[in-house]
Write a structure and sequence with these properties.
Order of helices and strands: EHEHEHEH
Strand order of the largest sheet: 3-2-1-4
Structural class: alpha/beta
CATH superfamily: NAD(P)-binding Rossmann-like Domain
Shape: globular
Number of domains: 1
Number of strands: 4
CATH architecture: 3-Layer(aba) Sandwich
């Protein structure tokens, strides 16, 4: 049986470690072409070699210009995008000050919206 990911392009922002890398690994094992990003160039290169990534790019996903430039270089169509990039605030949410909570939540929404905007244009 052929995998639903075979021949598809999967982009993982934050794909050099953790859940992002595990997802990229699984997608690659299912036959997808995988593109990963991360901030740590050395860790990213090692992860890209390990999984046989089609492409990798080191940049901060919160850098809107770098994000736009990255998506402009990718082949289309992009079939799937996972965003694990960007550090969440760790700690009890009820203990956060309102300004910190607002910044944490809005930061994730802005990042996700920017990724969707650029991935759709691809």
């Amino acid at each position: 049986m052929t995998s639903v990911l075979a021949g598809r392009l999967v982009v993982v922002l934050g794909g050099s470690a953790g859940i992002g890398l595990a997802t990229a690994r699984a997608a690659r094992a299912e036959g997808a072409g995988v593109v990963i990003t991360g901030r740590d160039s050395d860790r990213l290169q090692a992860a890209a070699r390990e999984i046989g990534a089609q492409h990798s790019a080191a940049f901060d996903a919160d850098d809107t210009m770098a994000l736009a430039d990255f998506f402009a270089t990718l082949p289309t169509p992009i079939d799937h995008v996972l965003v694990t990039a960007g550090g969440p605030h760790y700690g009890p949410i009820l203990a956060m000050e309102p300004a910190d909570l607002g910044a944490a939540l809005s930061g994730h929404m802005v990042r996700a919206t920017q990724v969707a905007r650029h991935a759709a244009v691809g």
